[in-house]
Amino acid sequence: MLSSFDTIILAGGIGSRLSGVVSDRPKCLAEINERPFLAYLLDQLERAGIHDVILSAGYMAEKVKAAFGARHGSVALRYSREEKPLGTGGGVKRALGLCRHDYVLVLNGDSYFDFDWRDFLGWFDPAAMRLAMVLAWMEDGRRFGQVTIGDDGQVVRFQEKNEAANAGWINAGIYMIRREVLAQFVAGENFSLERDFFPARIGCGFFARGYHGRFIDIGTPESYHAAEEFFRDQKSGFKAPSS
């Protein structure tokens, strides 16, 4: 079991597919029932006992900091700023400079998975694992990266979005990564975790654990509007920091 780690949320997404409904803010600040989407993620981490989070912010980063400031409930917030787009991999790699531990928990800032956090953190074995991914079972996996794991839980295949996909395990956008593995990954400054880093780690201590639970992302107008129903019981409680 891993006793200590840093946590990074990728909060720099532009949300180009949402431009018709969310055009004046980064995707993580898209309002769901009068709350920014990021607030739901931070609530979830707080319930899981995580109280220190680094926000990797790029597009309209100043709006993210203005909305959340230095704290959300009991969660202390720090910021890693991208001056130019670095991709999901580049954004995390830049944020490593603020990290204090050997492992980092990384979350996509535009998706939410209601699963057993304590089970995942208890299952993760730093003696054997260099990288671990949370998987969600999806009946229609066409919009998501699909993952195949062996009997021992090691990832044997990682495929980004596939229009021909059916039911299966998808990448839920939650990862535990050994810090030095990402820091030493040779790539350009701008690179993708999904397209570049993960495929290169197959066979190198890359594990995954699957869960059945409620999953949603806000990458399309349809899924964005569906999020209102998804979070219907978590409507109140967000207050922007005073200036």
Topology:
Layout: E1 6-10, E2 31-32, E3 35-36, H1 37-47, E4 52-57, H2 61-68, E5 71-72, E6 75-81, H3 87-95, E7 103-108, E8 111-114, H4 117-123, E9 131-138, E10 146-149, E11 155-159, E12 168-178, H5 179-183, H6 193-200, E13 206-211, E14 214-217, H7 221-230
Parallel strand pairs: 1-4, 1-7, 4-6, 9-13
Antiparallel strand pairs: 2-3, 5-6, 7-12, 8-14, 9-12, 10-11
Helix pairs in contact: 3-6
Summarize the structure.
This protein has 243 residues and is α/β, with parallel strands linked by helices. The protein is built from seven helices and 14 strands.
Characterise the protein shown here.
The chain is built from seven helices and 14 strands. The strands form four sheets. It has an eight-stranded mixed sheet. A two-stranded antiparallel ribbon has the order 2-3. The mean pLDDT is 89. It has a single domain, classed as Spore Coat Polysaccharide Biosynthesis Protein SpsA, Chain A, CATH 3.90.550. It has 243 residues and is of the alpha/beta class. It starts with 5 loop residues before the first strand and ends in a 13-residue tail after the last helix. Helix 3 (87-95) crosses helix 6.
